[in-house]
Request: fold
Amino acid sequence: MTQTFAERRWSSADGLSLYARDYAAASGTAKLPVIAIHGLTRNSADFDAIAPLIAQSGRRVLAVDIRGRGQSDRARDPMTYQPVTYAQDVLALMRDLGIERAVFLGTSMGGLITMALAAIRSKVIAAAIINDVGPEVAKEGLTRIAAYAGQPVEINNWADAAAYARKLNGVALPHLSDEDWDAFARRTFRMGTEGTPIPDYDPDIMVPIRAAGAKALVPNLWPFFTRLAKGRPTLLVRGETSDLLSPEIAAKMRKRAPKMDFVEVPGVGHAPMLDEPEAKAAIFPFLSELP
Reply:
């Protein structure tokens, strides 16, 4: 894919160099930018299908690499791998670029970071798209993620990396082809110093989760979600077979925020890539109503 973004760096409060992909908006009336935030072990490349489309629709998109992932520095203190710190890092980016308000698009952990931002600095969020996560999460999904995140894996070449990506995500994304899995691997692995692909994140991102023990598996963020969804446009995206955002949790969110928009992406688990027709059919009308 031709690169359609500029590379941007900014500094965190504790001196890390952080990275974002900056997709320029198509010409037209200036609109609020979109800040896209990925999941636990992923990076800004997760948005390489949807971000250019949003930019073409007239909104600048900043897809970030959260600290410890992708091209952002690894943290010196692994206990800073927590949503509140991640939220502060995003606020530093906004200050750096002079962005007062934005539309937030958060996948999985990115949705939790958006909820944390609502608690810390609610006014910066003009609207939110939450992709396949809730203020509580199904224990099955978190247990599955905890079983592989930060664990060593033996990968000798890109074919191994693609096979590993398929093993972890094949149930959630059953429609992907061999070519798609190769592309998926190249988004989520990078070439290591020994000449073989390695996961593109710091294994120490799991240190705070392990330190919290069982409490980490079922965080209660309902007050954060309530603050996020109250008084601002919110869209919830759910994968039909998601093991992280259960139908029951999604229903509870919709009851708590009755004005929230909702779409379920058929045949997909955790998490939709957002380039699915059903996801796009919800996202673009939602964005078109925003300033």
In short: The chain has eleven helices and ten strands. The mean pLDDT is 94. The CA atoms of residues 136 and 219 lie 6 Å apart. The beta strands are 6-11, 17-23, 34-37, 61-65, 102-107, 125-131, 189-191, 197-199, 234-239, 261-265.
